[in-house]
Write a sequence for this structure.
């Protein structure tokens, strides 16, 4: 069903409507269904960077189901989630590092 | 029997997350003094999986140096470790790349450009400071957004066609609510909730796939 089909059904009942408002309501419905059903899964890959702790998540991520790392046979292998990261990393001083700053020379530190 | 046993960049990877970020940690295999962590887990410290020989280098205006490595797959922003040179050894960020018919030929780094050609001698190499596409996450996602009348809810947004009528009920509910007709708004809201709750419908009760014996 296209957006046009939906708008036609609504306009048959309510008369002519603003197109942008219809798109907004359709997208509201999609967000509401996503929050209830959680059956739409997606996968993305990114580079595993040396000395980088944090990777930002896109806005479309609702719930992480699985995280995998590429092994030396080019196969993705699932890795476990830390249930008590606050204990294991309680004295880790760089855990809040969020961004990587490109640098030249031999400097490879996190900023 | 498999002859090549799989190995990992590090056998103790784990992840955790906060609201909008994902953290990847692995066993701390280094003992570098002055490290910012004292825990057994630390950020990934292994080697990258891309490397190549540098066959030539040339200086460029503005404090840049171009290295030639035919077949490289580096991209802008990637970080590499260069070795074997006199002046450019160390870690650098790639600021530009060039290719010929889709095959990478040169990449550029920011560096003082005093040396003319350091790639001519043997043993000049680069190694990536990352594993290319080394991380994959699978997640429950929001549906895509609709912003044109021709867009299909199945192909553009990813919504199963069985849930399309629920979208119509949701919109009708909102429209009646705007008009102040709460009774009809609640009726369509109820229909919407029922459709979403019951989907996917399983009238047969068969929930397993029967695989025929071959």
């Amino acid at each position: 069903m296209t957006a046009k089909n939906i708008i036609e059904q609504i306009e048959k009942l309510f008369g002519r409507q603003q197109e942008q408002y219809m798109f907004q309501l359709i997208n509201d419905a999609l967000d509401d269904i996503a929050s209830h059903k959680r059956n739409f899964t997606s996968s993305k890959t990114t580079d595993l960077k040396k000395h980088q702790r944090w990777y930002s998540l896109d806005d479309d991520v609702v719930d992480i189901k699985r995280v995998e790392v590429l092994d030396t046979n080019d196969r993705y292998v699932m890795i476990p989630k830390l249930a008590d990261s606050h204990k294991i990393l309680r004295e880790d001083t760089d855990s809040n590092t969020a961004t990587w700053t490109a640098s030249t020379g031999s400097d490879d530190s996190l900023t | 029997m498999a002859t090549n046993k799989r190995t990992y960049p590090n056998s103790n990877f784990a992840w955790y997350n906060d609201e909008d970020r994902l953290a990847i940690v692995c066993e701390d295999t280094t003992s570098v003094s002055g490290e910012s962590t004292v825990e057994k887990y630390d950020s990934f410290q292994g080697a990258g999986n891309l490397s190549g020989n540098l066959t030539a280098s040339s200086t460029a205006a503005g404090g840049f140096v171009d290295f030639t490595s035919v077949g490289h797959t580096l991209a802008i922003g990637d970080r590499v470790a260069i070795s074997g040179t006199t002046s450019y050894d160390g870690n650098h960020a790639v600021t530009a790349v060039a290719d010929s018919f889709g095959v990478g030929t040169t990449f550029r780094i920011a560096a003082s450009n005093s040396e003319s050609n350091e790639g001519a001698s043997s043993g000049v190499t680069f190694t990536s400071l990352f594993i290319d596409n080394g991380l994959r996450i699978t997640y429950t996602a929001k549906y895509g957004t609709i912003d044109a009348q021709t867009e299909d809810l199945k192909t553009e947004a990813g919504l199963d066609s069985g849930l399309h009528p629920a979208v119509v009920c949701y919109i009708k509910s909102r429209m009646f609510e705007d008009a102040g007709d709460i009774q009809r708004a609640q009726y369509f809201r109820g229909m919407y909730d029922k459709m979403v709750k019951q989907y996917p419908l399983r009238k047969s009760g068969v929930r397993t796939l029967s695989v025929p014996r071959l």
Summary: Residues 3-37 of chain A form one domain. Chain A has three helices and four strands. The helical segments of chain A are 3-14, 19-37, 85-88.
